[in-house]
Amino acid sequence: MVAGAASTGGILAVCISKFKKQRRNDMATSKERDKEHGIGHLAMKTPPIVSQQEWEAARQQLLVKEKAFTRSRDALAAERRRMPWAAVEKAYEFEGPKGKVSLLDLFEGRRQLIVYRAFFEPGVFGWPDHACRGCSLGADQVAHLAHLNARDTTLAYASRAPQADIARLKARMEWNMPWYTITDSFDKDFGVDEWHGHNVFFRDGDKVFRTYFINNRGDEAMGTTWSYLDITPLGRQEAWEDSPQGYPQTRPYEWWRWHDSYDTETTTDPKWVDIITDPYGAAARRREAEEKGCSCS
Fold first, then answer.
1. Per-position DSSP letters for 176-228, written without gaps between them
2. Torsion over CA of 177, 179, 221 and 38, rounded to 10 degrees?
3. Which of 70, 133, 226, 233 satisfies CB 3.0 to 4.6 Å to 211 for a cystine?
4. 179: Cβ–Cβ under 8 A, 6 or more apart, which residues?
5. What secondary structure letter does DSSP report for 143?
6. Is residue 46 part of a domain?
7. What is the pTM for the complete model shown?
């Protein structure tokens, strides 16, 4: 027993020694990293430390401004939906995975199209292994496309790289958005020959219109389903939005689905309707049902 205890104690001492050594190494690495990034903890002028009550008061004060910002953003999107359109007269041609396609084909049968010009081609930093770092960061943020598609909207990327290189890059980076090769003056004509940007188009039958364009820091906000829909002419298509007369709209939340069930689930589940129309009541009814279930077991 004594020998066993001594052996265990020895093992424990070795473990503690290794742990302390690893901790010293981690701290040294952290200090080196802070030094590299110019971080001086003592030099940072951090906000004051306050009580929970004071913190909540500060949060409520800021929340007023945040809500005003949200309303301002909604108003800006409403104004965007009323922007004039420009007819696209030229027949643009792209190369896709299955061959040549037109700008009209990029819609994939939907009414709205967002085309992001990504820089992936010879001469761009990272070629041929990677696309531009900024464009790649944006691509990493793209939400599941099924939700956009459910709102009659298609997102597509376009570059000048050949399709074989685009397919290789998408596989490596695990990106799923449609990605086409620019073969003519599309990038120059729409202001994205030297810098990235999102162009938005609307299809009325075989006619195509340019409705919006955003680039520079405006591209930073892109990636979520909502940020994409907010730059389209139809918006989120929900009843609360301020949209021109006759625009398609449904009740908020009602059209939401799991991204793998849009094709199979054609009607809204009654339980989901209950949740979105009366969230607090639905929660109370669910708890009541659970309690009844427990008493019966």
1. -S-EEEE-SSHHHHTT-SSS-EEEEEEEETTEEEEEEEEEGGGGGGBTBHHHH
2. 100
3. 233
4. 118, 156, 157, 158, 159, 166, 170
5. P
6. no
7. 0.81
d(CA 94, CA 179): 10
Write the CB contacts of 148 (distance below 8 Å, at least 6 apart in sequence). Answer: 154, 155, 225, 228, 229
Q: Residue 113's domain spans which residues?
A: 74-229
Task: Specify if 51 maps to a domain.
Answer: no
The answer to whether residue 157 sits within a structural domain is yes
The candidate with the shortest Cα–Cα distance to 169, out of 184, 181, 187, is 181
Question: Residue 133 is encoded by which pair of tokens?
Answer: 């770092």
| Structural domain contains residue 4 | no
> Residue 218's domain is classified under what CATH number?
3.40.30.10
How many C-beta atoms lie closer than 10 Å to residue 169's C-beta? Answer: 23
One-letter identity of residue 231: I
